TrEMBL record:
<keyword id="KW-1003">Cell membrane</keyword>
<comment type="similarity">
    <text>Belongs to the UPF0208 family.</text>
</comment>
<keyword id="KW-1133">Transmembrane helix</keyword>
<dbReference type="Pfam" id="PF04217">
    <property type="entry name" value="DUF412"/>
</dbReference>
<feature type="transmembrane region" description="Helical">
    <location>
        <begin position="74"/>
        <end position="93"/>
    </location>
</feature>
<keyword id="KW-0997">Cell inner membrane</keyword>
<keyword id="KW-0812">Transmembrane</keyword>
<dbReference type="GO" id="GO:0005886">
    <property type="term" value="C:plasma membrane"/>
</dbReference>
<dbReference type="InterPro" id="IPR007334">
    <property type="entry name" value="UPF0208"/>
</dbReference>
<keyword id="KW-0472">Membrane</keyword>
<protein>
    <recommendedName>
        <fullName>UPF0208 membrane protein YfbV</fullName>
    </recommendedName>
</protein>
<feature type="transmembrane region" description="Helical">
    <location>
        <begin position="36"/>
        <end position="54"/>
    </location>
</feature>
């Protein structure tokens, strides 16, 4: 599972951002959400820890939200939930990157590899397509997406 999530992280970093790709593939939307998650979840985790510390009596806080003086199990569960959201996004991307191309996408991949003068794999997956798209956009420009 961790290997798949790691592959998903690399896959989302590799996936090129363009309007045409955003209309066809959900990766750009997931990439956007994961980018915001990396920015917002750490402050939420710090807030959960500090809030639980203050509500549990630290800094002479008054316990008016929780019925118990210390609720660290709930804080730990909340933190694990937030981390699980991020893990799930990367795991989803890792699983998606392993999907084999079929039909028109496979044909488009093979044509793009021919235009880039690089060998095409016989059974490409979405990770291979992302690598080829990124290379193609660098060398040939965004006009390569018109064939999609």
């Amino acid at each position: 599972m961790l290997k798949t999530a790691w592959r998903g992280s690399r896959y989302l970093e590799l996936w090129p951002e363009h309007k045409i790709l955003g209309a066809i593939f959900p990766e750009i939307r997931v990439k956007y959400v994961m980018r915001w998650g990396r920015r917002l979840i750490p402050p939420f985790i710090v807030f959960i820890i500090l809030w639980n510390y203050v509500q549990g009596g630290g800094l002479k806080g008054v316990s008016f939200i929780y019925t118990q003086t210390s609720n660290w199990p709930l804080a730990a569960l909340s933190i694990l939930f937030l981390l699980g959201i991020m893990f799930h996004g990367y795991y989803w991307a890792g699983r998606r990157s392993q999907l084999k191309l079929g039909g028109t996408l496979k044909q488009y991949y093979q044509d793009l590899c021919a235009r880039l003068s690089r060998p095409a794999r016989s059974e490409p997956d979405l990770y291979e397509l992302a690598q080829t798209l990124k290379e193609g956009m660098k060398k040939l420009g965004p006009s390569i997406l018109d064939g999609l």
